[in-house]
Design goal:
The chain has 561 residues and is α/β, with parallel strands linked by helices. It contains 12 helices and 27 strands. The strands form 7 sheets. A 7-stranded mixed beta sheet has the order 12-25-26-27-23-24-13, with helices on one face. It has a 7-stranded mixed beta sheet with strand order 21-18-19-20-14-17-22, with no helix packed on it. The two termini are 34 Å apart. Bound molecules: adenosine-5'-triphosphate (ATP) and magnesium ion (MG). The site of adenosine-5'-triphosphate has 15 residues, from helix 2 and strand 8.
């Protein structure tokens, strides 16, 4: 289902400046192919923040005619799942990227174990029996070094204990393997970090083969080095881990070059949360209908909402790659989608809050057809046929019994209005039910204005309105969305993000009237409902005969440059 993606050229950024230096003659990777990787942990679905990382990893490789691996970072056995692995692959492909090699970090468990043994043999790692609490109590502070009473235990003893850790002789948390680096380091990540821990837990790929698992800071550099990665691009929180990254690769005998870790800013977007833990909570506690709920910032949610790969890639390009964290406005993401759909989406008519319009002087039982352009700026996109008859649906908000100042739409005695592509009409009256709700608008049309223009060239003072023929209309459900969170920063400070949810983030309209040409529409098709916004067929709930549409984005651009 890969769509054609318009490739934005990835602009030069500070990462590329480093790479230029590295591959230049005399540089550390002179003559080598630039090789990056995208390393998601398969414990959730990818979100728009990951899309940025994907853009940076794959886009950078492409810029240098290099390659990028996809690697499932599955060193942590607790929450990983095949469902997520499959979804991650699908999302990356959908975004329009392809990887050189598909790997799992768990493929390297045996290598990692052997490298750990090598470190012990070299006197660079030891088995420590402090519990997690004791270890953090003994971390020291800026002025005081950390302490471990096990640091100087004989190499043979550590080798023996580590082998027995692997053999399953000890319970979870009883001991760890620690790198022997510097207990007094100003960088706390270097104060003899744990590199292996005991965890009696099945792994989604290795099953019960292992009960010890490597820590991220030990595993990640090894994975990169074993795959021949040249540039390991990651987010800023890993900056202070870089000395450890380098230490690991430099102290084991890997017959490869050392990859260069370069950090860039994480993407944050207002009115949403991005942490997988929080997204999972929204799903599991039923605040949304699933990971692909169209309000979610996940790739599958955005896809179901009607986002296109082109829009997401263009967003990723335009937000840029910087060294300082910042928050991007959600309205900018919408702006990027609107720009893409404005260019590609077919224009159709749909009335989402319908009221009947009866044209009193139009002959009963008759009908005719009109050709409506598919795109005002792209005549090559052609036209489509709509039917017209005496009874139409129009938008309830296009009528007022009593006009307000400057109101140019329908009201009794009001100005002549244009029914898009059809005829000029004038409102003559209306009917209400007992509660006073408008149930019908009456109008007269000018038979000489076929196509929407008056024969005598008089000026049309009213608005152009969209409409749908009541005889052929398709009844559909339309879902309107707003931000999932009304608070712009649900993640900030000590807030409970669940308290920040927007109670009006979903509005379901069940009796919308769509022009008949939409009967054949199937996901992932997107349309502009004239005067309303961009809508797509819901990929999960839409059925032939019972269509469901999602509003992807409204027409009004609230993004201010
Ligand atoms: P979380 O904390 O939500 O679980 P994570 O960073 O642990 O996110 P991973 O699956 O490990 O998620 O992420 C894979 C890659 O995507 C990493 O290189 C990570 O730096 C990057 N990434 C994750 N979130 C963002 C973000 N918001 N902006 C940019 N890159 C991100
Ligand atoms: Mg992670």
């Amino acid at each position: 289902m890969a769509e054609e993606v318009k490739e934005p050229v990835m602009s030069q950024n500070f990462i590329h400046d480093f790479i230029d230096e590295d591959i230049a003659p005399g540089g550390q990777y002179a003559g080598m192919t630039v090789h990056t990787r995208f390393p998601p942990e398969p414990n959730g679905y990818l979100h728009i923040g990951h899309a940025k990382a994907i853009f940076v990893d794959f886009g950078t490789a492409a810029k240098y005619h290099g390659i990028c691996n996809l690697r499932m970072d599955d060193t942590n056995p607790t929450k990983e799942d095949v469902e997520f692995v499959d979804a991650i692959e699908e999302d990356i492909r959908w975004l329009g990227y392809d990887w050189a090699e598909f790997r799992y970090a768990s493929d390297y468990f045996e290598d990692m174990y052997q490298f750990a043994v090598e470190l012990i043999r070299k006197g660079l790692a030891y088995v420590c029996e402090l519990s997690a609490e004791e270890m953090s109590a003994n971390r020291g502070d800026i002025n005081t070094p950390a302490v471990s009473p096990y640091r100087d235990r004989p190499i043979e003893e550590s080798l023996d204990l580590f082998a027995r850790m692997r053999a399953g002789e000890f319970p979870d948390g009883a001991m760890t393997l620690r790198a022997k680096i510097d207990l007094a380091s100003g960088n706390f990540n270097m104060r003899d970090p744990a590199i292996y821990r005991i965890k009696h837990m099945s792994h989604h790929r290795t099953g019960d083969k292992w009960c010890i698992y490597p820590m991220y800071d030990f595993a990640h550099p090894l994975e990169d080095a074993l795959e021949g990665i040249t540039h390991s691009l990651c987010t800023l929180e890993f900056e202070s881990h870089r000395p450890l990254y380098d230490w690991v690769v430099d102290n084991v005998s890997i017959p490869y070059h050392r990859p260069r870790q370069i950090e860039f800013a994480r993407l944050g977007i207002d009115h949403t949360v991005m942490s997988k833990r929080k997204l999972r909570q929204l799903v599991e506690q039923g605040y949304v209908s699933g990971w692909d709920d169209p309000r979610m910032p996940t790739i599958c949610g955005l896809r179901r909402r009607g986002y296109t790969p082109t829009a997401i890639r263009s967003f990723s390009e335009q937000i840029g790659v910087a060294k300082a964290d910042s928050t991007v406005e959600y309205s900018f993401l919408e702006h990027c989608l609107r720009a893409d759909l404005d260019d590609t989406a077919r224009r159709v008519m749909a009335v989402i809050r319908p009221v009947k319009l009866v044209i009193e002087n139009y002959p009963e039982g008759e009908s005719e057809t009109f050709e409506i352009e598919n795109h005002p700026k792209h005549p090559e996109m052609g036209t489509h046929t709509v039917t017209f008859s005496r009874e139409l649906w129009v938008e309830a908000e296009d009528f007022l019994p009593e006009p307000v100042p400057k109101y140019k739409r329908l009201y009794p005695g009001g100005p002549e209005c244009r029914l898009k592509g059809a005829y000029l009409i004038r409102c003559t009256g209306y009917e209400t039910d007992e509660a006073g709700n408008v149930t019908q608008i009456n109008a007269q049309y000018d038979p000489d204005s076929r196509g929407g223009d008056p024969a005598d060239g008089r000026k049309v003072k009213g608005a152009t309105l969209h409409w749908v023929d009541a005889r052929t209309a398709l009844t559909a459900e339309v879902r309107l969305y707003e931000n999932l969170f009304s608070d712009p920063a649900p993640d900030a400070g000590g807030k409970d993000f669940l308290e920040c949810l927007n109670p009006n983030s979903l509005e379901v309209l069940t009796d919308c009237k769509l022009e008949a040409s939409l009967a054949e529409a199937a996901a992932p098709a997107s349309f502009q409902f004239m005067r309303q916004g961009y809508f797509c067929v819901d990929s999960r709930d839409s059925r032939p005969g019972a269509p469901v549409f999602n509003r992807s984005v409204s027409l009004k651009d609230s993004f201010k440059k």
